[in-house]
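Consider the following input, taken from an annotated entry for Alkylation response protein AidB-like acyl-CoA dehydrogenase (Streptomyces pseudovenezuelae).
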Amino acid sequence: MDASFTAEQDEIRRTLRELLNKRCGYEELRAAVDLPLGHDPALWTALARQLGLPGLALPEAYGGVGCSATELVLACEETGRSLAPSPLLASAVLAAPLVLALGTDAQRADLLPRLATGDLTAALAVPGTALATALALTGDNGGEWAGGGRAGGVQARRVGEGWRLYGQADQVLDGHSARLLVVAAHAGGFARSRTLFFLVEGEADGLVRARQTTLDATRPQARVQLRDVDAELLGEEDGHGVLGALSTVGDLAAAALACEAVGAADRALERTVEYVKQREQFGRAIGSFQAVKHRLADVYVQVQAARSAAYYAAWATVHGERVGGVALAQALEALRDSAAEGIQLHGGIGFTWEHEAHLYFKRACGDELLFGPVHRLRAHAADAARLFLDAEVTV
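Applying the prediction step yields:
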């Protein structure tokens, strides 16, 4: 592994940071999350058209930039620094790779160029609250999370030459605004039980979706109800490779989320260091007190360790190593601690609604609720690596 960035990667990060510093300050962020979409469409257009972020990891043959997933993951560090609300994670990290991996030639040719330009946004919808399970982040995704033939989940049935879906998904990132839903559903009876993916238009008859009130307003979620909705099968009916593709996407998402969390943790630490240099107590800046220095030094070490893990995960996404879950656990812990120290060291203003410190803490907690918790991310990684094998105890 070469730990240095390429000139292209440095340029992507620099340009993205400049744009977000100008267009996604605290006031712009607060205004954006209150919009019906949950993000600023003008900022999304700039990210998509000027920088090509949605198509960064898509092949040039489909209108993408042709970079690897590493560049997309590293770009997420900059969006994480500003907590920029956008469809990037839902559309480019979760949905587009599934279309690329599972779609037919016709589906790829139709959907990927529009996803690459950002004109079409997509969201991944999995049944109930099974997002982390489906992405194989906290356990094996080969279970019955899609429905398993029982009541609940999302069920798919054939009607003539097409398919219809019935069920509900409760944690669909940007699901209230996406123009296309990539829905995981259970199909077949006991003998042919399998999980398949389907494409559902955002305005389809029988589709009911509503934005939910969530802990982290910068990460919009929706409840999606499918009431006998017409759907198009994504890929082949045999379902071969579906769970493997979903697991691969899960590792990519974990690496992207880890880089986001590292960017957010670094920014929260920066703001805290700036503040303790200015705030005075007993006639001197509180940053000069040894106890404060020690606390911030501990956070700095934690953030740097998380950054190393996240960068390795970014590199590993295209080199066949699945370490995203471990990196995500490390990064979420660093963000939580960095944000918590920031709130405390900002004193009376740190926990107020008007200050931005609480947004970083909510991002850490919200992501842990969605994709964790941290101990389960680590436990699954340990199980996958077979670190703790059962051993006979001899006396």
